[in-house]
Amino acid sequence: MTMAETTMTAAKSDVNTETPILSVKDLVVRYTTGSKSYLDAVRGVSFDLYPGQSLALVGESGCGKTTLGLGLLRLLPRLGSVPSGSMTFVGKNNKPVDVLKLGTAALRRWRWEEAAIVFQGAMNSFNPVLRIGEQMADTMKAHLIDGHKPSKDEILDKSAEMLRAVRLEPKQVLPSYPHELSGGMRQRVLIAMSLLLDPRLLILDEPTTALDILTQRAIVDVLGELRERLGFTMIFITHDLALAAELADRVATMYAGRIIETGSVRDTFQNPRHPYTAGLINAVPPVTGDLPNLASIPGSPPSLATLPKGCAFRDRCSYAEDKCAEIDPELEMIESRLAGLSHTAACINWQQVHSPREVVTADA
Ligand SMILES: Nc1ncnc2c1ncn2[C@@H]1O[C@H](COP(=O)(O)OP(=O)(O)OP(=O)(O)O)[C@@H](O)[C@H]1O
Ligand SMILES: [Mg+2]
């Protein structure tokens, strides 16, 4: 399937265009690195996400994708903090909440019931000495379902239902310990667990990275089915552009802690307007065609602790000019579209950026 066909499939999803489910404004996430030093791994990120939408966050290792995902769920490590910005979330009761102002108890409920995450390197998310059934039950016991504590039978029924939804056999999986399952099965269990309390928002951080290609395929299919059936909103973190094209309606490219381009899958991958996104697309090996067309992006990302003035990409950019050392451009509107699908790019030379070849999805 080419990316254009994939985009048409994605466009079928039922996106409510009225109120964003999540509205992020100027979010900064900081890690303290010493008594007087820190680095901002997310440097002022803003976006609106609409119900039913699937947003892929793409970009090189270290650009801040996981930090943004953890920041959105307020799950940062001890030395991480959010010094500024806002996150407004519209929950199941249709009332907006300011996620940064939720107290400990409310936050604990909000996670799982409204928003859940499948972590990068998810194998570490399991308790190795508890059976899968016990781990699923523990997750549910801490929450109310339809206003009451779930009974043992309800917990078992829901766990089995979600395992079947990810194509696993509950009788086999519930009594197993994590080490008795394959990597692909464990990843599917984690997806099932994340959906136990019917969250409106699911964040998946590199859910297929450590898996072989056939297992990847199975996970991608399961996620597509689950989205269609349950209608949750999704943020999908990956550096695999073909997966992003397949699973997302929308793409946001991150570089050095900022979103530097965003738009629909079609606009972004067919007509990228930031030289970095264009570079990422050109670096994907074509399924057909000549390998010599491949071009890597020269150099490596700058250190977030010592970012120079101006555009953080300029040292690697073939479009860079003197002005780029002075200006760190904001996202500029390129094509206005509904439901947060507008195409924007943070480059003063966006008009000159060439369209690279088309990204071909994994199952082409
Ligand atoms: N606990 C921490 N303390 C200090 N710096 C951190 C911490 N965690 C991450 N960082 C730094 O924050 C930046 C962003 O890291 P992050 O893990 O969010 O990137 P990523 O885009 O998810 O990368 P990858 O694709 O490798 O998963 C990196 O420079 C990283 O070194
Ligand atoms: Mg990461």
Rg calc = 21 Å
Work out the helicity level: 25-40%
Text of the CATH class of the largest domain: Alpha Beta
CATH-defined architecture of the largest domain:
3-Layer(aba) Sandwich
How many helices? The count is 11
Topology, number of strands: 12
Mean pLDDT score, rounded? 87
Hetero groups bound?
A: adenosine-5'-triphosphate, magnesium ion
CATH topology heading of the largest domain = Rossmann fold
3D structure, described in words:
Keywords: ATP-binding, Cell inner membrane, Cell membrane, Membrane, Nucleotide-binding, Translocase, Transport. This is Dipeptide/oligopeptide/nickel ABC transporter ATP-binding protein. It is found in: Cell membrane. Mean pLDDT is 87; it is low at 1-13 and 360-364. The strands form 2 sheets. An 8-stranded mixed sheet has the order 6-7-8-3-9-10-12-11, sandwiched between helices. The protein is globular, with a radius of gyration of 21 Å. A hairpin with a 2-residue loop joins strand 9 (250-255) and strand 10 (258-264). The protein is built from 11 helices and 12 strands. The longest helix has 18 residues, at 213-230. The chain has 2 domains: 1-114 and 201-213 and 232-364, P-loop containing nucleotide triphosphate hydrolases (Rossmann fold); 124-198, no CATH class. The chain has 364 residues and is of the alpha/beta class. It binds adenosine-5'-triphosphate and magnesium ion (MG). The site of adenosine-5'-triphosphate has 16 residues, from helix 2.
